[in-house]
Amino acid sequence: MPIECRNINYKYSGAQNPVFNNLSCRIGEPGFHALFGQSGVGKSTFARMIAGQLNGFFGEIEIREPKKIFYSYNLERLPGWSGVGEHIEKVTPEANKSRINEIVDSFGLSACMDSGFSRLSLGQQNRVNLARYLLQDFDLLIMDESLANVDEATREQIIFKIKEMFPEKSFLYISHSVAEVSRFCRDILVLRNFLKIPQAFMVHGQDDVREKQVVKKDLEETMLEIVNAS
Amino acid sequence: MNIKNNVTVALFMLIMLFPAFSGCGKKHEEVTKVSYRLKWLFNASVAGDIYADANGYFKKEGLEVEVKEGGPERDAIKELEMGHAQFGVASADQVIRAVSKGSPVVVLAQLFQANPLQWIYRPDENKIERPEDMKGKVVGITFGGNDETIMRALLAKYGIKENEVNFFSVRYDYTPFYERKVALWPVYRNAQGIIIGDKLKKAGESAAFFDPDTSGIRFVANSVITTEIMIKEHPETVKKFISALLKAWNEALKPDNSDKTVETIQKFDKDTSPDVIRRQLDITRQFMKPSEKTVFGAIDVAAWKQTESIMLEQKLIPAPVDIEKRLKMEYNRQ
Amino acid sequence: MLHKRLYQFVLVYFIGLAFLFTVKEVFNLSDYVIPGLPDIYGTVRRVFTRYLLDVLNTLSVAIVGHILSIALATVVGIIGRLSNWMGSLIRTAAFNVQAYPIVAVAPMIFILLGDGLSSRLLIAAMICYFPLLLSFIGILSEPVTDIEHFYVHSGRMRWQLEVKIRAFENMNKLITVVAGSATLAMVGTIVSEFIGASAGIGYSIRIALYQSDLSKILVALFLIGIFTSLYLAVLELLGNIVSRSWGEKEA
Question: Which residue in chain A is spatially nearest to C171 when comparing CA positions?
Fold first, then answer.
């Protein structure tokens, strides 16, 4: 399900400089990809454009069918009136209900199911939020810092699990960790300052999966490439 | 709280209160600036009061008088005690109630010789010639008002039990009377009496008035008041004030002066037409100075005593107040 | 909470009374202007039971009026939160209606509806409805993006759910506003009784004013204060129970 972005121009109202200046790129192939860039470079803005939540830009975003795109971010909350388990059960489409336990267990959330959302730690909250998105019928899931506040080992387990469970789906992972995106992601779209041409630069990552050993040198090369690009 | 704190609090309260009571207890040899609080809004029934002010009667006596409009929430007696006014107009029941509660109020002149409070009715539909004719009728009264007191006194005098008439609680809205839900409606004969009578006439109906006075209920209405302290400390001011006021009233009520009086009232009461004001003034004259011989402002001691005994009977005051001691006859002999 | 409210009210009341007595003593005023203790005591003995029943009568009307205005404000708030022409029309109408002073509108209400219960109810509801409406529109039109985002983008958002999320997230605000407007409901009922009704403590106050009887007013104020405090305390208690049972899963 490739998404073709051509000559995107966008400026926030009242801002002096544009966020995007003739941005062109292609994303959305199946696999676990990343969107990387320095703070303020427009990662979340770009993600919301793709998800159809932000209009008013110039240029073209062409999404070929099917195109169920979800955008999740790390500050989302569940409503306070129901428990986590109850909520997840309620918002999961019938066909995906068989997957609830698998995801909940592998995300280390079994103990949280009877709790209220606000009683959970920030890391647990983010995992719960990601879990409910994974249980939706999506083609592309944008994960905007969805694993913030989650420890490294758990993060690794979760990413591996996602890759195993959804090999046909597309993910766009937004993270600030160069090492993380270099290791786990297949394609890394590096967004750069609007003055740089081209504004988006694609780097190939190591696309690590369980029981595969990433060569340290390759990983370092990817990291260097990303740092240089951004 | 220790004594020092108590003193601080007391001092603080006094300082806070000082502006509100700045008129209290000031000892002047001669007061030239005084306030005069009326009982009701400016209309024909305060003709002489505004006439005195507008035509310089107070000035001639060397007084600067601020004539202040009254209203439903105004109480001249309270203002006298608080020092916000030095003279005022109050109804007899107010005066008697205040005396019963230890107020130093005194009466200088009685404005109305007969109470203008009467009940309007449709003579074509109800014949009310004697109090007994009210039996079985719906009679409007303002609960707590002096029309209630007068009506109850009337019923008691004629041995009519209260369950033999149906009382209706009256407010500012006359609709129940127009809709015939109520047969008798209390009005001031010289004010609303004329306006409502006109409305009935327009609708092709006739209007008549039932006057408790003719059935022997003498309940004194408005009088000019001040305080004993004022008479004691500023006797000359009181004399000058009342002399100017009575002169003005006498002039204002002279039939020959009607045009001038109506014109004066019109300046203050812009909502009423000169024609209505003239008729209000004519009726007011009948209550205040029914004949050439009537001394304007004369205090009818017997009527005051009857008013007191009515209030006593209806337990509106707990004990006799000897109201005659508060009636200052010397100011109204002309 | 209950005893705290009552305690606070009684304290304020007696401070006020002490203030009046101080004024009376300092300026040597008669009982006609400010009644003395024996006068007040005598009045309490004479009118306490009657006034108690009057206040209960007023309170019951105030409670019904309060419930009515909460219901009305909820409905108008839900419609008024919409950003289309209908929401804007409702908001404008609601604001305009409130701009008329109630003392000017009340006589018309009494002429149309008579001096019975319905007029008192309507006026009480009108007086406490506006602050409720303002808060309700404010709360219900303010998105809780962090919660609503998921529902909106998974296509699950319904207006009932939206209202539920916003109300739940602002529960404490809502409870404060509802409890606060209870005082206004009580004031509204008393004002309506004072202006035109033939029952309730407002009507009794009017009669007492005709008779220049401040003792009666003081007794009425005491009872009004006590029962308003009681009603407020009960509302706060209910609010606590609601937010506790709704928020059980919350922190």
Answer: A80
The more confidently predicted of residues A215 and A167 is: A167
pLDDT in tens, C155-176: 889 989 999 999 888 888 888 8
User: Does the distance separating the beta carbons of B98 and C30 come in below 8 Å?
Assistant: yes
H/E stretch holding A173 reads strand A170-174
Distance from CA of B248 to the nearest CA of C (A): 30
Which of C30, C31, C210 lies nearest to residue B144, judging by beta carbons? C210
Strand extents, DSSP E, B95-135: 105-110, 117-121
**CATH class belonging to A3-71+137-229:** alpha beta
Q: Is C92 exposed, middle or buried (0-12, 13-18, 19+ CB in 10 A)?
A: exposed
Confidence band of C190 (pLDDT split at 50, 70, 90): very high
Q: Contacts by C104-111 with C-beta closer than 8 Å and gap 24+?
A: C106/C191, C106/C192, C106/C195, C106/C196, C107/B172, C107/B173, C107/C195, C107/C196, C109/C196, C110/B171, C110/B173, C110/C195, C110/C196, C110/C197, C111/B173, C111/B175
Report domain C61-246's class: mainly alpha
Q: Which of C32, C191, C194, C216 is the best mutation test for B, with the most CBs of B within 10 A?
A: C32
Question: Secondary structure of chain C: what % helix, strand, coil (to 5)?
Answer: 85, 0, 15
pLDDT of residue B19: 45
Closest Cα in chain C to A76: C146
Tell me the one-letter amino acid at C102.
I
Residue B219 distance to chain C (closest CA, Å): 16
Distance, CA of A21 to CA of A11 (rounded, Å): 9
In angstroms, the CA B210 to CA B131 distance is 9
CA distance B65 to chain C (A): 24
Which of B14, B78, B102 comes nearest C26 by C-beta? B14
Q: Which of C29, C209, C211 sits opposite B81 (nearest CB)?
A: C29
**Structural domains present in chain B:** 33-114+220-331 (3.40.190.10), 117-215 (3.40.190.10)
Residues 6+ apart with CB under 8 A from A172: A27, A28, A33, A34, A35, A47, A50, A140, A141, A142, A143, A189
Question: What does the domain layout of chain A look like in residue ranges?
Answer: 3-71+137-229
Q: What angle do CA B111, B116, B122 make, to 5 degrees?
A: 170
Q: Report the C-alpha gap between B180 and C222 in whole angstroms.
A: 40
Question: Which residues in chain A have Cβ-Cβ distances shorter than 8 Å to C147?
Answer: 76-79
* Domain residue ranges of chain C, discontinuous segments joined by +: 61-246
Query: What residue type is A151 in one-letter code?
Result: D
Residues 6 or more apart whose Cβ sits within 8 Å of residue C107? B172, B173, C195, C196
At B316, list the tokens: 């509106």
- The verdict on whether omega for the bond into residue A66 sits within 30 degrees of 0, i.e. cis, is yes
- What are B's interface residues with C at a Cβ cutoff of 8 A? 10, 13-14, 17, 21, 24-25, 73, 75, 77-78, 81-82, 94, 97-98, 101-105, 142-145, 169, 171-173, 175, 316
Predicted pLDDT at B26: 46
- Per cent of chain C over pLDDT 90 is 35
Q: State the SS3 of B77-99.
A: HHHHHHCCCCEEEEEHHHHHHHH
Task: Give contacts of C168 with chain A, Cβ < 8 Å.
Answer: 79-81
Task: Find out whether A8 and A135 touch, Cβ atoms under 8 Å.
Answer: no
Contact C107/B24, CB-based, under 8 Å? Answer: no
Q: How many beta-carbon pairs below 8 A join chains A and C?
A: 51
Pairing of strands B87-91, B222-227: antiparallel
From CA A35, how far away is CA A173, in angstroms rounded?
Answer: 6
- pLDDT average, residue stretch B142-155: 90
